[in-house]
Amino acid sequence: MSVSHHLTDETLQDYSVGSLSVAMETLVACHLTVCQHCRDRATLADQIGGEMFDQFEAAPMAQTPEQLLKQASLLSGSHAPKVTPQPKRSFKDVPRPLAQFLPAELDELDWRRIAPGIKQINLSEQHRRMGAFKLLHLAPGVVLSAHSHNDRELTYVVKGSYQDEIGRFKAGDIADLDGEVAHQPVVDTDEPCIALIASHSPVKYNGLFGKIMQPFVGI
Ligand SMILES: [Zn+2]
User: Fold this and answer.
1) 5 CA from centroid of ligand 1 (Å)
2) 80-91: b (≥16 Cβ within 10 Å) or e
3) Ligand 1 centroid vs 37 CA: distance in angstroms?
4) CA of 4 to the centre of ligand 1 (A)
5) Which of 66-70, 151-155, 212-216 has the highest average model confidence (pLDDT)?
6) In whole angstroms, what is the distance from residue 19 CA to residue 98 CA?
7) Who is most buried in 125, 140, 177, 208, counting CB within 10 A?
8) How high is the pLDDT of residue 188?
9) CB atoms < 10 A from the CB of 9, how many?
């Protein structure tokens, strides 16, 4: 698998210190299963983080253990997955970090149609205002409404490909976008594109059609 789009340094650092949501952590882990380049950078981020931790270890704690525990429980509550992870599952074309959240093979899943040519599987039960953790199934030729984000959005391509203002994304690639980037993905082959998405806030649609569709589509 040749990978051409990678994780940013910032995301790898957040992954290294464990500050990402379960959803984003899953996408990062999926990309790391196919990308030696990012695996090497993740190892480096771990080493730098470890050295920084050693330096600051002796400093007095700013928070009590109770406060830290409370924070940890709040963090683990965000993007709480809908399904209990099943570590031993493996499915065709599905990286293992994602397989643990799926009940069946990709073509046997209970896809929900949300717009012409667009189906989805919601992997999180939280309200869309809190962001998304979902699998999208996009038919050939589908054009998503132009949109941007308030915050980081990760997209991991599981199967097929799409193209947008940033480039062409194929299976194994990850789009690691911050809130500034506006884009309009288009499925650019005869094969459906299956993409895993994680965000912390709802998308901002640029056009009226997208704004009208947003409550229904929820992406
Ligand atoms: Zn990479």
Assistant:
1) 6
2) ebeeeeeeeeeb
3) 5
4) 7
5) 151-155
6) 19
7) 177
8) 94
9) 12
Decide if 146 contacts 184 (C-beta within 8 A).
Answer: yes
Nearest to residue 133, comparing CAs of 215, 21, 11? 21
Residue 77 in this model has a pLDDT that exceeds 50:
no
Find, among 140, 38, 42, 34, the residue nearest to 93 by Cα: 34
166-180 per-position pLDDT tens digit: 999 999 999 998 877
Q: Which residue has the higher pLDDT, 75 or 41?
A: 41
CA 31 / ligand 1 centre spacing (Å): 6
The Å distance, Cα 36 to ligand 1 centre, comes to: 7
CA of residue 82 to ligand 1 center, whole Å:
27
> Do the beta carbons of residue 154 and residue 199 sit within 8 Å?
yes
Q: Give the span between the Cα atoms of 96 and 131, in whole angstroms.
A: 23
CA of 32 to the centre of ligand 1 (A): 7
Domains of the chain: 1-219 (2.60.120.10)
Supply 5's token pair.
């789009």
Question: What dihedral do alpha carbons 156, 170, 120, 135 form, nearest 10°?
Answer: -20
What mean pLDDT is predicted for residues 66-71? 60
